[in-house]
């Protein structure tokens, strides 16, 4: 449910993709000054040439005085810079520098590992996380089943973009520009199963409709791949969470496929930045 501002001056800035998913509980903990500062940063992030103070005031629909005070603090802390003539404001490189003090992939892996470990313990299956990298899928994290019986893909392995569950999830949950770039950069890996453009388009349409992928593995007999996207704020897949499910046929009774799928769904939701968007 989209939250509306409690400020008498109305709306948040017109920033494409801005998150408006605050719940009623979240509203109790609003920090108006912090919100204003973040709104300015998000607004300037969409304006590579910067904006004048008057333009920022118009976009923010707030008083010139409160915007001026906030801008001066952001300039003083070096998150925003003024141009030489002093009439336009733009983002500095400070946010970029802060982000690279803790690489995003490392941060994602650190957040994912305990969630993946909990999944493996409940599901008695292995799981791995894949990210797009230079035309294919890089397995960036992997957890084995604690039971000792599982099928796993080694961390650091590169697997096909067009014939794996992880690849199809990444392609299904991306914007058109990213899709074209990924397809242009793709080079087949060893053993990759070819697929026609028509078949790929149909497969991705089905994945988007279901919100996840579940199918027999294209690489190994007896394995059912279950894969969910880890979604970013714009509903694009930051990564994929995949379980290569194998069913034991001895006397041990482990969780059935449907329950494992539910556990994987919960794990993907816990890691996604758009909570509740993964079906």
Automatic annotation (TrEMBL):
Biological processes annotated in GO: negative regulation of DNA-templated transcription
Keyword list, A-Z: DNA-binding, Transcription, Transcription regulation
Domain HTH iclR-type: 31-93
Organism domain of life: Bacteria
Keyword DNA-binding part of the UniProt annotation: yes
SMART domains, alphabetized: HTH_ICLR
One Gene Ontology molecular-function label: DNA binding
Residue span(s) of domain IclR-ED: 94-277
InterPro entries for the chain: GAF-like_dom_sf (IPR029016), HTH_MetabolicPath_Reg (IPR050707), Tscrpt_reg_IclR_C (IPR014757), Tscrpt_reg_IclR_N (IPR005471), WH-like_DNA-bd_sf (IPR036388), WH_DNA-bd_sf (IPR036390)
Protein name, entry field: Transcriptional regulator, IclR family
Organism: Albidiferax ferrireducens (strain ATCC BAA-621 / DSM 15236 / T118)
The organism's taxonomic lineage, starting at the top: Bacteria, Pseudomonadati, Pseudomonadota, Betaproteobacteria, Burkholderiales
């Amino acid at each position: 449910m989209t939250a509306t501002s409690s400020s008498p001056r109305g709306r948040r800035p017109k920033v494409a993709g801005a998150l408006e998913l605050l719940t009623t509980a979240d509203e109790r903990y609003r920090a108006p000054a912090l919100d204003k500062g973040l709104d300015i940063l998000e607004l300037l992030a969409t304006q590579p040439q910067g904006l004048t103070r008057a333009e920022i005031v118009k976009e923010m629909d707030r008083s010139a005085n409160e915007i001026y005070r906030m801008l001066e603090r952001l300039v003083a802390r070096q998150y925003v810079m003024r141009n030489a003539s002093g009439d336009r404001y733009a983002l500095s490189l400070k946010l970029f520098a802060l982000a690279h003090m803790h690489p995003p992939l490392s941060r994602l892996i650190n957040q994912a590992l305990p969630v993946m470990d909990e999944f493996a313990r409940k599901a008695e299956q292995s799981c791995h996380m894949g990210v797009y990298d230079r035309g294919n899928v890089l397995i960036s994290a992997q957890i084995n089943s604690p039971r000792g019986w599982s099928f796993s893909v080694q961390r650091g392995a590169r697997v096909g973009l067009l014939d794996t569950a992880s690849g199809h999830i990444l392609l299904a949950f991306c914007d058109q520009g990213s899709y074209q770039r990924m397809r242009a950069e793709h080079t087949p890996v060893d053993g990759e199963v070819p697929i026609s453009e028509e078949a790929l388009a149909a497969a991705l349409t089905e994945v988007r409709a279901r919100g996840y992928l579940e199918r027999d593995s294209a690489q190994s007999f007896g394995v059912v791949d279950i894969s969910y996207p880890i979604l970013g704020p714009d509903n694009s897949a930051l990564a994929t969470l995949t379980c290569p499910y194998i069913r034991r046929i001895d006397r041990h009774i482990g969780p059935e496929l449907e329950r494992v799928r539910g556990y994987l769904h919960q794990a993907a939701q816990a890691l996604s930045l758009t909570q509740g968007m993964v079906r």
